[in-house]
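INFO  loader      accepted 1 record
INFO  loader      residues=121
INFO  predictor   begin
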Amino acid sequence: MAEYLVCSEDEIADGGRKVVACGEREIGIFRVKGALHAWHNMCPHRQGPICQGRIYPQVIEPVDEKQEVRTLQYNEDNMHVACPWHGWEFNLETGRNAGPAKYRLHRAELAIREGQVYVVL
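INFO  predictor   done
INFO  writer      dumping C-alpha cells
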C-alpha cells in the first residue's frame, strides 16, 4: 500500500475540504462534525468530480395533506455533497446516495500520525 502525506490535521476546518492528487487518483478529504472522511473523487453516476461539488445540508421535501411539496427544509445534521455534473447527492459521512441505495461513494483510507493526515491507497 502507498501512503500520501496530504496536510496537517488542523488544516481542514469543520465543514471544509481538501482535494488532493495521490498518484494517479484524486481524493477528497472532508471534515464533518469534527471527523475526517475521505472519498475518491469520482461520482458513481457518470464519474464526475464529486469531491469538488457544493456542500450543503440534506434537503427535505415535506409533503402536505394533498401529497404536494410546498417548501424545502434542510437537515443540518446530514451534510451532503452534490456532483457538479448532474447534481447527484451523497452523504459526506456515509457516502450513501440520497436516492438509489446502490450508488455510493468509494471510501479512501486515512491514517493520522503525529498531527499529519495520510491517504492510504
